[in-house]
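Review form for a predicted model. The reviewer records the input and the model, then writes brief findings.
Reviewer: anonymous (R2)
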Amino acid sequence: MRIPLSWIREHTQFPESGTAEDLMAELVRVGLEEEDVHTSELTGPIVVGEVLEKTPEPQKNGKTINWCRVRVVPEGSQQTLTGDGIDPGGVQGVVCGAHNFEVGDKVVVTMPGAVLPGDFRISARQTYGHLSAGMIASVKELGMGEDHHGILVLSTLGLDPEPGTDAMRLLGLDDSAAEINVTPDRGYAFSIRGVAREYSHATGTAFSDPAEQVQLEPPRAEGHKVVINDLAPIYGTTGCSVFNARTVTGIDADAPTPSWMASRLRLAGMRPISIVVDVSNYVMLELGQPNHCYDASTLDGAITVRRAFPGEKLTTLDEKERELHPEDLLITDDSGPIGIAGVMGGARTEVSSATTNVIIEAAHFDTITVSRSKRRHRLPSEAAKRFERGTDPQLPALAAKRTADLLVELAGGTDAGEVTQVGEPQVPQAIRLDAQLPARLVGVEYSREQIVALLQQIGAEVVADGEDHLLVTPPTWRPDITIPEALVEEVARLAGYDQIPARLPEAPAGRGLTPAQRRRRRVSASLAAAGFTEVLSYPFYSEEANTLFGQAQEGERPTPMIRLANPIASQYPVLRCRILPGLLDALRRNASRGLRDLALYETGSVFLAKDEFGTAQLPALGRHPGDDVIAQLDAGIPDQPQHLAVALAGREPAAQPGEQGRARDWADAVEAARKAADLLHVELGVVQGSHQAFHPGRTAELKLAERTVGYAGELHPKVIEEWDLPARTSVMELNLSALLESAPEKVLAGPLSGYPATTQDVALVVEASLPSADLQATLQEGAGELLEHIELFDVYAGTGIEDGRKSMAYALRFRAQDRTLTAEEASEARAAAVSLAQQRHGAEQRS
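Model under review:
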């Protein structure tokens, strides 16, 4: 919201010498955020001039210029300015290329030394054979609009000032505006009325409410017929609670907008258009109540407020035809829709230069209805910005009267008192407030008298309700205040945020991270400690990426996906079923920027659709929807298990002088999965697997018992080429939630033996297709309870080994709890392990 300083001074005691920065500094004290300062970017001298002579002079290039003599001081006065080209007699010679003015016209003259928007500096210069000392300015050159084809003739604005008058002050170009950020809960601050009230709160000075300055008289005649027909409201409340229509006749739609009004509108960020539109916008900015003017001659029958019928369309003021939705609240007449309520009017009833009679609409619309229509049709209008935050239900009649008064004053109209009002303003509900609640929540001791005074300051009615409670009725312009905590926030805000002590609250006992959260963080921290870098990717993917990594084999049942109703981009229409596509995007992006050695990981939720979907129809507000509706909504929420994924490329450690480093491969991806499982004390099976996105011979399937929980290995060369990834990229993804569910709640450490260990190695030749995990499990079973640890340290296939077979070497560590093992005992345990491997797998001991 932009606040012109001249406007705020009309309703507050903001000093004449005050700047936009001063205003924002005061508003920050009551919780409004400062944004920017806006000025006309003009500096003087810029004065009114009277054209005394205008001599056309054709040029060789075919262009005709005008050599003008312009009086820039009152007749009989002397020029007080000095400098190059300044005529002491006050008659300047100026070269002008425009032709839309005549001798005797009053124009705006920028004198030497003036600066125009864009840092355009005016000076006396020799041009077209003359010394041109200044410039006769256009609307665009003064920053007043986009029209640069002709000179600004002041009579077109209804002005006839004396030569030498300060044109910046005359046209309001010496004004500036402070811009503040308005949070969604404080829609009343989208108006001069609301900001002026906040300034009075911040400074303790008087405030003049512009709404109270409107003289509202009883209607003298029935106005245009209005019907509200919203009998089946979708959100538990009618879409329009109040509709006020007031008729103004005999207006001159071509009357000029006063310069003071046009200047304020421009500083407030709105473009002056015509007197009717400008008055409508001015009242909206002043009071915070949007209004709309219809050309009365274009209306066909009564105005009806209703929801849209299927298939209805409307061409809005931006000349776009829009297909309407049954939830849209419309303003209609007998011919059909003439506007989307609270958002934008229709082109058919637009006010034009031929308009003489207007119907002024000022209504109170439901916030949710307006907000959804605005988003549905992508129409972020100034009116919708205010309605969706909540407007004052008491304002429609006052705003319509204020608009009518300005049209009478500025456009020559007549207000015959023809008014129609349908509906009654909603009355805020009283809130019971514990007088000790502010002290408990804020940590500052507020007295009962102080609380009452502060709440009355915002316009609330406060009465005692027993010894310890107050009954507070919020003002109509604060629809955001509905609970006691909101009243506490107002007390803290107006008393001063600087009064709140800066101390940390004491944490209640018995709270902290859940066991699952602690385990998840333990896994994440261990990967970070191992040299992995955590990344966070968007959960929006293409269907192709979801299918590639979500289905192990082509032709499998398609992975059910959650489709987004409003995706951030057309190529990302679904939520992710796996983490790897987003992680690989991060890997590719880093590799494209010259990083070669990469080890990335991510933990996060994936979204798995159920067979049953929820409903898009939200339950009505203001009442409990019922257990069956809640159950239906819950049934449509997708499963969201936590996944863990890693992606690796390059070398470890990074190449350096004398050390080239080891190339990362599929074994590192498998090891990351094993590390996560070990930290959670879960037995993770690793077997040979296959997956359409992975290299056929370098894919590990990760299992919990018989359940597949993920895959690890090297990506398929085709995938690496299509995704533009580094060669031999290796990845892993597993269902972390499944590991967490299988993790024991407590892990009891076994007894520690004080006796020495004995280590023996064994190399067995087996079929090449035998997974190492199966052989290791067999050796562990055969060795018995003396075996403390077993580890695979070598795999070999080649010379000396038959085709189709491989050699796997294991280190076996034996230890007893009650004695020192002899070499014979360790050898017997080793022989038992080898024997069982021979029986089950046909293993042969390699010499």
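Findings: The mean pLDDT is 90.
Further findings: DSSP finds 21 helices and 42 strands in the chain.
Recommendation: see findings above.
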